[in-house]
Amino acid sequence: MIGKLKGVVDSFGEDFVILDVSGVGYIAHCSARTLQRMPKVGEPAELSIETHVREDMIRLYGFRSDAEREWFRLLQTVQGVGARVALGVLSVLEPEALASAIATGDKGSISRAPGVGPRLAARLAAELKDKAPAFAPVDPALVALAGAVEEGAAPRPVADAVSALVNLGYPQVQAAAAIAAALKSAGEGAEAKVLIRLGLRELAR
Fold first, then answer.
1. Residue 41: φ, ψ to 5°
2. Is the separation of the CB atoms in 44 and 7 below 8 Å?
3. Which of 148, 146, 189, 188 is nearest to 171 (CA)?
4. Mean pLDDT by 10 residues, the chain (205 residues)
């Protein structure tokens, strides 16, 4: 099995890169995010590799980090998620952002991936929630706050503050994280306008 490739970028395709390793060109299928961050043609590059072997073919999937590869594997443990969908998820969310989205139940961010509808996004969030913190540090306060907002159990000022930031165009996971940080400095009894102001300050950092 191939676990890593180190060579020179030969060329790019729509969803793959060809890496020249000592004169042998390896086709590695990658997420859009990985392809965007690859060096230019002719420059050295290194990819973590996941090898899929079937009766009729061998296919390589390439990743810029081991964390991305681990998420690729983990995503496919959920029914309805194959390699293409897993790459789609990793194309719109970096590993740390994906871990936060799953831990906080942010189905909206997950469903931005091609091939992921609301039901599949909910299944991913539910089935992988307990595993997400192992892949990235997620603030327990953020998880608790996001869960309370999702269930309609958050205090009114907190829910209003998160909603206001979402209406300004911030993803819910970012809005919840900002308000969670704002709560720590302002205290539990803070008004919504105070939380919004502090939340925006957090997002501007």
1. -55, 135
2. yes
3. 146
4. 92 96 96 94 96 90 92 92 94 86 82 90 88 59 60 75 87 77 79 87 80
DSSP H or E run through 59:
strand 57-63
CB 135 within 8 A of CB 74: yes
Alpha helix (H) ranges present in the chain?
Answer: 32-36, 66-75, 83-92, 95-103, 107-110, 118-128, 140-151, 156-167, 172-186, 192-204
Q: How far is 74 from 86, CA to CA, in rounded Å?
A: 9
Beta bridge partners of 6: 46
Distance CA 156, CA 77 (A): 37
- Looking at the DSSP bridge assignments, the partners of residue 79 are none
4 residue type, one letter: K
